[in-house]
């Protein structure tokens, strides 16, 4: 059966790359976006997570931390950004069929001028620094296949790290993905790396083939850094 298209395709038949469109607003747009996440995380730890005594019995842990983080990101936004941030947003572009539920992002930065263009973040619980299997699956099965972020040359992973060393977690991600992790120059004091990938673009599509994945490890049971970077 021929696909009839969705309202986003009909409203915005022409799309561009989120990254390039956002840079027209500010050359440092992506670093500004990511800074919101880090500053939201600082608030999350200080104002929400620090009084909690985790016992590994919490229900819906990944979803509930993400929801609390999104609230904190909203609190640090200026309102001048060309994007909004929402939780659990569908990616209708890569739905397998008219009846299938589309892929769903944990956090989505949606370009205000074109609701079809999304910069996504996927979150995974890392109980320890070796618990990276599900994290890696998101990268290889979704980002690199263009199932996620079809209209963005960048996106990101959030690892909610409960125990262990972030550097060891990065080493395990780099080894098992496999990929090369690089420091982000704008966030030298954060547990933040990037990796560059060539994506498998589906036939007939013009999605960005070169993709940068941001890796942010958020320590959940820990104090936040006091020396933060500004953009």
């Amino acid at each position: 059966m021929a696909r009839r298209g969705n309202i986003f395709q009909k409203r915005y038949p022409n799309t561009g790359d989120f990254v390039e469109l956002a840079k027209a607003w500010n050359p440092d747009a992506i670093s500004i976006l990511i800074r919101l996440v880090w500053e939201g995380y600082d608030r999350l730890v200080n104002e929400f997570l620090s009084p909690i005594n985790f016992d590994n019995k919490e229900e819906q842990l990944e979803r509930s931390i993400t929801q609390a983080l999104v609230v904190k990101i909203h609190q640090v936004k200026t309102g001048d950004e060309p994007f909004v941030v929402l939780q659990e947003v569908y990616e209708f572009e890569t739905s397998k069929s008219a009846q299938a539920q589309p892929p769903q992002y944990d956090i989505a930065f949606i370009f205000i001028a074109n609701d079809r263009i999304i910069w996504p973040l996927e979150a995974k619980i890392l109980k320890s620094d070796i618990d990276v299997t599900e994290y890696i699956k998101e990268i290889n099965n979704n980002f690199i296949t263009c199932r996620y972020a079809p209209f963005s040359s960048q996106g990101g992973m959030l690892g909610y790290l409960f125990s262990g060393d972030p550097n060891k977690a990065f080493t395990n991600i780099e080894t098992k993905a496999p990929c090369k992790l690089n420091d982000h120059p704008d966030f030298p004091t954060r547990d933040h790396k990037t990796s560059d990938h060539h994506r498998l673009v589906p036939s007939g599509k013009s999605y960005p083939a070169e993709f940068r994945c941001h890796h942010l490890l958020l320590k959940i049971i820990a104090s936040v850094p006091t020396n933060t970077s500004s953009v």
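The chain is about 30% helix and 25% strand. The chain has one domain: 15-219.
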